[in-house]
Amino acid sequence: MQHPGHLLRRAVQVMNLLWNEEVSQTITSPQFAAMNALYGEPNLDQRTLGQRISLDRSTMAEVVSRLSARGLIRSVRDARDGRRKTITLTPKGLRAVQHLIPRTHSMTRRLVGPLDQKQRDELLSLLTKVVGANERR
Predict the structure, then answer these.
(1) Distance from first CA to last CA of the chain, Å, rounded?
(2) What's 93's domain CATH number?
(3) Which segments of the chain have a pLDDT < 70?
(4) Which of 109, 111, 108, 71 is nearest to 90 (CA)?
(5) Domain residue limits at 72
(6) In contact, 101 and 123? CB cutoff 8 Å
(7) Tens of pLDDT, residues 59-90
(8) Number of domains, the chain
């Protein structure tokens, strides 16, 4: 019998390989997730952004730091609440995410290509249940 943890680890390895081949060797999947979230919902604070993409505080801080250093996002102090900083994509970041989105679709097609649509739906449902049942409360 195959162990689920081993298969999940292998699936992540395959996903990372495909990410590097199809999407980017410089923008990581979590970095893209942050940029894509900001693309859909600009001006999020770091905490909310982390919640949107399910990253813990320290990982989110690292993602923000790296994207900022590369000029892909910027933080601006909120005019209504000086303690809060909102994050937005820079024009460079906007171009990058628009360039990467179709590549992520291509990567996903390769990742789940062996599955028919019913199996894809079932895989997403099962993974969602596993993740949801094991998230920190």
Answers:
(1) 31
(2) 1.10.10.10
(3) 1, 136-137
(4) 71
(5) 4-107
(6) no
(7) 999 999 999 999 999 998 877 877 888 999 99
(8) 1
